[in-house]
Amino acid sequence: MSTVRKVAVVGWGAIGRVVGTALAEGRVTGAELVRIVDNRPLGEAAPVRQATFEEAIDSCDLVVEAAGQGVVREWGERVLASGTDLLIASTGALTDDELAKRLLAAGPGRVYFTGGAVGGLDLLQAVRTLGPLHAVRLTTTKLPSTLEQPWMDEELLRRMRTATGPVEVMSGTARDIPVKFPKSTNVAASVALAVGDLDAVRVQVVADPAAHHTRHVIEASGGQGTYRFEVAHLPDPGNPATSQVVPYAVLRSLAALAGRTGQIL
To answer: Which residues form the Aspartate/homoserine dehydrogenase NAD-binding domain (predicted)?
Structure first.
């Protein structure tokens, strides 16, 4: 008889609500929602008991992070050291090399990452075992309002707010970009995780007032072959910085961890 995974969801926002509700309604075979962690009192909105992080770790064997990069930095190692597994949605935190090394070395809990808003990462991870890719590029296009950041100067904000077409907001590597856009560019870190090198992934962030869909284009090439993946998602209505599909990608990952048959791994 298979063991039911006891799950805590951290963060009751656009991602956590969808994931937690599906778990609470029994829509993920082999997984049960037992705790919710959030820094706001949820009251009757919580389908199970709201708990502190410490209580959640004690009562669960799998924690789903859906609350942002800061939670990964503060709690990731502690979750794994307790023997609890951790599924990370905010992969942007892994642009910190030292944190990434510590998480991958921590245990006895196991750390997993969800692909989130893009596909093809499993193929890139397989391809890299044949040798390094020579060129990897990610272009992310979103609505200007979802990309505004406190560090931006008035000139850049003006260009974004008055744009009538696509405007490049920033370009750099997968090491640089997620730090500057902590809620919008987890995809860059996910691509780098698949490729195995933060500095090998060139990233361009584009603001476009006509971007009714969030678009990610991944292009990679090497001696093994040439690869191109393009996705265009509707933004989440409650949090336009997140694609609507992301919580369902988390649920797919959860189903695999809970042992559902028929999963593509």
So the answer is: 11-106
